[in-house]
Amino acid sequence: MRPVSRRPFPVAHNPASNRWAQFARQRLRLLLLLPSVVLLALSLAAAQSSNVQSLVRSGQAALDAGQFDRATADFEKARELAPDSLEVNRGLLLSYLQSARLAEAATLGRTAVGRWPQDAQLQHWLGLVYFKQGQNAEALESLRRSEKLDSAQFGIHFDIALVLLTQKQYPPAADELEKALSLEPSNALAHVLLGRAYQNSNRTLQAIEQFQTALRLDPRLPLGHFHLGFAYGSLGRNQEAIAEYEKELAAGGTRNPEVLYELGHCLLETGDWKPAITHLKRATELAPQNADAFYDLGKGLLLVGEAEAAIAALRRSIELKPTDPSPHYQLARALEKIGQGEEARQERQRFAELKKAQPQTGGMATGRVQ
Question: Using an 8 Å Cβ cutoff, are 133 and 106 in contact?
Fold first, then answer.
């Protein structure tokens, strides 16, 4: 009997079999390497994510500290690593906005809103970018979209009101501020702005209530007493107005020409001419373009017998506001005091012509008592 052959199965000589074996070995090596590659990729992704989060935290801390350039740098680096991160795009947009890089903010904001159209914060901040650029219609459009997406945010209603106040749309501004205060009733500035909206809508008593509330919430509120004084003055309650203006001066408003002018005006109305002149002179020094301050100053100087000085002030008022009839009336009186009858007659004629040309007003009185 022939012995059983113990030779191996002959495959080595088969080229196709050799190629298959080689492929199998390569595949095996790849499979052995795959876990390491996956782990490396996961490790790199984790490191990148950690770096992004670190930049986001640093950028947010810089924003909170008012270090806007540093915040911008952090969020720009984060966006290079994670351009599709909503959180990063929000932070960078806010950083651009806060550091007044408005062109970059507008470009980024439009891109981000296109990517995340349902994000209320992006719409809100893009609206603020437009507002700071003076594009009020675009600002209002973005802010209204933000309001539809999230109507429970104080800041959205507040900023819509700012745009409306700028456009002198006082009743809708009041509506937005009422919504804002329903969410944050202790915000003193919102009460002041609501008071201003009421004041300019002929709702002066309600305005006074808002200004009083604001001062109860924050007795040191800048211009709080000024606004309350103005509301009192518009009702002819001059003594109360004077008291509020003096409080504003005591709180540091001595270099505010509006405070000085309104205080001088009320003192003039109550017959306290000398202190009125003091405040009005200071107001004209600080705000040399205020025609009304020069008019009141000229009127006050005339009342205390200083006709020459009154003439100079009244001529300056006419120069600044040539369509106002009132300075011509007072100037005619002053010219008569110094014997300039013909020139006084011309000023009275000019006064009559300008007065006739003025449109008739209804509702609240807007003209001066000569």
Answer: yes
pTM for this predicted structure? 0.80
**Domain tally for the chain?**
2
Residue 155 lies in a domain: yes
Cα separation, 354 vs 346, in Å, equals 12
Evaluate whether 107 touches 126 at the Cβ level (below 8 Å).
no
Cα 176 from Cα 169, distance rounded (Å): 11
What tens digit of pLDDT does each residue of 236-291 get? 999 999 999 999 999 987 889 999 999 999 999 999 999 999 999 999 999 999 99
The secondary structure of residue 134, as a DSSP letter, is T
DSSP states along 138-158: HHHHHHHHHHHH-TT-HHHHH
Domain that holds residue 97: 52-133
Question: With b meaning 16 or more CB within 10 Å and e meaning fewer, what string describes 61-89?
Answer: ebbeeebbebbbbbbbbbbeebeebeebb
Q: Determine the Cα–Cα distance for residues 125 and 119; give it in Å rounded to an integer.
A: 10
* Residue of 112, 109, 114 whose CA lies nearest to 127: 109
Of 163, 191, 218, at which residue does a domain stop?
Answer: 218
CA 127 to each of CA 93, 116, 145, 148, 359: distance values in angstroms, whole numbers, following the listed order: 11, 15, 9, 13, 38
